Amino acid sequence: MDYRKRFAVEPGTRVQLGKIDAAFRDKHESHETAMPEIQKPLERMAKLQYLLYADGNQSLLVVLQALDAGGKDGVVRHVFSAMNPQGTSVFGFKQPSRLEATHDFLWRAHLRAPGKGEVVIFNRSHYEDVLVVRVHKLVPTAVWSKRYELINDFEKMLGQNGTRILKFYLHITRQEQLARFKQRLDDPLRHWKISETDYLERELWPDYIEAFEDAVERTSTKHAPWYVIPSNHKWFRNLAISEIVADTLEEMDLKLPTTRVDIAEIRRKYHLAAERQDQKLSKTPVKR
Ligand code: AMP
Ligand code: MG
Fold first, then answer.
1. CA 270–ligand 2 middle distance (angstroms)
2. What is the dihedral of CA 69, 173, 79, 159, to 10 degrees?
3. Most Cβ neighbours (<10 Å): which of 45, 89, 116, 140?
4. For ligand 1, atom 6, which residue shows the shortest CA distance?
5. How do residues 137-151 score in pLDDT, each as one tens digit?
6. Would you list the domain boundaries of the chain?
């Protein structure tokens, strides 16, 4: 199945998250039976990222958004670990720092956007400024409601400069979120990941869903599409995202740079000479 077609939000269409099956897992019975399928796109991603880096003319920006416990960290760990850390980076968007808050809301996103040849993953993103900011009324409606257009213009500009943008909303149900909170309570290694705020934010679920639906509807564009990824099954989420990333990179027509040197001549003139010299050196007795 072409997951890009299946999960992309067509520009201008209304999204009703409540109607999208968060537990969808395509034809796969279980994580175990899907295993061979999961490995393939990860290998493709690794090869293609090498090409993106070598090519050096384009870049990839991946935006991850979700409600708490939606799996953003899991995607970074399981999907993007397939890529070489040289040329890949992750940036997590927290509450704006003092410095960040003195600038426009896109400043920190622009600062971290990928340079040519790079892949950057945004764990949360400039979309927080139409999500948490809207839900908690941190700025007036007149301010956040103008941001969709600003975001579209910003992403269009990045696109024209050679950046492909993929935006993923990790879609989970309320029940799944609660189950994941419970796992955090039960696992001392994950206690640091849970707090009262998670339960308080959960009470605002309908407000967040409304904010997500509006954001996705108003900012899914041809050059920077949103994908709503069924994410109750973590392994399916990883499979879908890695296939979409690999398919996108494949489409970018990445090429190894043309060789500027004469390889045959280097082999003949320099390499063979160096080998001969090393042979000679190894036969020379070491002076004491
Ligand atoms: P975490 O992703 O769990 O490390 O949490 C980061 C926190 O920063 C979340 O509660 C976000 O909602 C919050 N955050 C991120 N961006 C903004 C923003 N622009 N304004 C307010 N809060 C934000
Ligand atoms: Mg959190």
1. 57
2. -100
3. 45
4. 94
5. 999 999 999 999 999
6. 3-260
Are 60 and 119 in contact by the 8 Å Cβ rule? The answer is yes
Write out the two tokens for 145.
């409601």
Q: Are strands 88-92 and 226-230 parallel, antiparallel or unpaired?
A: unpaired
Please state whether 111 falls in left (phi above 0), alpha (psi between -120 and 50) or beta: alpha
Q: What pTM does this model have?
A: 0.95
Q: Which of 63, 76, 94 to mutate to test the pocket of ligand 1 (most atoms within 8 A of CB)?
A: 94
Its CATH class, for the domain covering 3-260, is alpha beta
Q: How confident is the model at residue 285 (pLDDT cuts 50, 70, 90)?
A: confident
Ligand 2 mean position, distance from CA 194 (Å): 7
Q: How many CA atoms lie within 13 A of 58 on its CB side?
A: 21
Which residue has its alpha carbon closest to ligand 1 atom 7? 94
Q: How far apart are CA 64 and CA 124, in angstroms?
A: 6
Which atom belonging to ligand 1 lies closest to the Cα atom of 132? 12
Cβ atoms within 10 A of the Cβ of 34, count? 19
Q: For residue 257, give the 3-state DSSP assignment.
A: coil
Tokens representing residue 210 in the block: 């409304």
